[in-house]
Amino acid sequence: MTVLVTGGAGYIGSHMVLALRDAGRNVVVLDNLSTGFRWAVHPEAVFVEGDCGDEDLVGRVIREHGVDAIVHFAGSIVVPDSVVDPLGYYLNNTVRSRALIAAAVANGVPRFLFSSTAAVYGDAKESPIAESAPLDPVSPYGTSKLMTELMLRDTARAHPLKYVALRYFNVAGADPAGRSGQSSPRATHLIKVATQAALGERTHLDVFGTDYPTPDGTCLRDYIHVTDLARAHVLALDYLAAGGASAVFNCGYGRGYSVLQVIEAVKRVSGVDFPVNHAPRRAGDPAALVADASRIREVLGWRPELDDLDTIVAHALAWERSLAARRRAAE
Ligand SMILES: NC(=O)c1ccc[n+]([C@@H]2O[C@H](COP(=O)([O-])OP(=O)(O)OC[C@H]3O[C@@H](n4cnc5c(N)ncnc54)[C@H](O)[C@@H]3O)[C@@H](O)[C@H]2O)c1
Ligand SMILES: O=c1ccn([C@@H]2O[C@H](COP(=O)(O)OP(=O)(O)O[C@H]3O[C@H](CO)[C@H](O)[C@H](O)[C@H]3O)[C@@H](O)[C@H]2O)c(=O)[nH]1
């Protein structure tokens, strides 16, 4: 079995490649390095630098390496950027995904996993949110991902391709063995930014909005460890290989933490009391996103092993320290 991982030089994709290699699978990574890093590609994976929207290239890669499953992480991921540049997000996340799916169909790839997002639910009325909740994204990012889910749904009805869309809630942390982590210096994710503030790489942290209808006025999110998430993907591939039907699964722990609770955890774990400012709301942020993850537990038998906010923060901090050491060594 050879798995094609698009976006395998990025944060979550690099953890998926670790999980696949740990399970002894052959891996080809396709990445255009727009936000990923060549050094983050696993040394035992074949690396192809290119775009997942290049249908001819993807077709050649599938045939040359005998690809029988595609795991599609490549995309643009910053919610507020999508509000400013919707067409850029529809191009990279929707149009290029269509080309990738077309190449999969044309070359008979039977299995496809897609990185979807809790952003497809928008301002959900229910909490926790089940997969059956209304799909009503409040950002172009969420819409761009939902359209790809719908393309997969319709394609799987018309062709012998089975898919699983995994709707991630907030992914955080780093490989417990320190082999990968979130490496973008311009990352906007809360835990990443807070660990940078704790290590003095940012002067302060802004809290975007303190007037949400939540217990402390800041947004609630369900933070999932990236290694637990990668394991869910390996289970999803096994499920499809065993004849499982196409499906959609939430990926989260089912518990929400507020922005202020996350900041407290980073201060507690790092022992650093960095400055925190209250700032206006950020565009496109729903107040609360917490997963009902019972379906993935029941159908895939997924059992989280790193379900603890302090553990997530400790692993993120360890990775941030190793990035700082890497930078110092390069100077
Ligand atoms: N990080 C999160 O909390 C989160 C939550 C929900 C869903 N997701 C989804 O997970 C996926 C991975 O996110 P991430 O956090 O690892 O982001 P990332 O930016 O670290 O990784 C994305 C990777 O895709 C590559 N890429 C982007 N566009 C490409 C293209 N057109 N062709 C080839 N390569 C391309 C980038 O160079 C990068 O290596 C994304 O699809 C994202 O929407 C992420
Ligand atoms: O410096 C910061 C960064 C974030 N936040 C707040 O922290 C919460 C989490 O924000 P992140 O940027 O870490 O994550 P998002 O919830 O915006 O989005 C993430 O999770 C989503 C699904 O829940 C999407 O899939 C998306 O790709 C991914 O970036 C939000 O309320 C945000 O306003 C701050 O207050 N200050």
Automatic annotation (TrEMBL):
Q: Which UniProt keywords apply?
A: Carbohydrate metabolism, Isomerase, NAD
The residues the entry assigns to the signal sequence are none
GO terms, molecular function: UDP-glucose 4-epimerase activity
UniProt record similarity statement: Belongs to the NAD(P)-dependent epimerase/dehydratase family.
Its pathway is: Carbohydrate metabolism; galactose metabolism
What is one process in the GO biological process aspect for this record? galactose catabolic process via UDP-galactose, Leloir pathway
Q: Where is the NAD-dependent epimerase/dehydratase domain?
A: 3-252
CDD domains, per the entry: UDP_G4E_1_SDR_e
Originating organism? Chelatococcus composti
* Subunit structure, as described in the record: Homodimer.
Q: Give the cofactors, semicolon-separated.
A: NAD(+)
Write down the chemical reaction(s) this protein catalyses. Answer: UDP-alpha-D-glucose = UDP-alpha-D-galactose
Instruction: Please state what the protein is called.
Output: UDP-glucose 4-epimerase
- This protein's source sits in the domain of life called Bacteria
Which EC number(s) are documented for this chain? Answer: 5.1.3.2
Q: Which SUPFAM superfamilies match?
A: NAD(P)-binding Rossmann-fold domains (SSF51735)
Asked if the Swiss-Prot or TrEMBL record annotates the protein with the keyword NAD, the reply is: yes
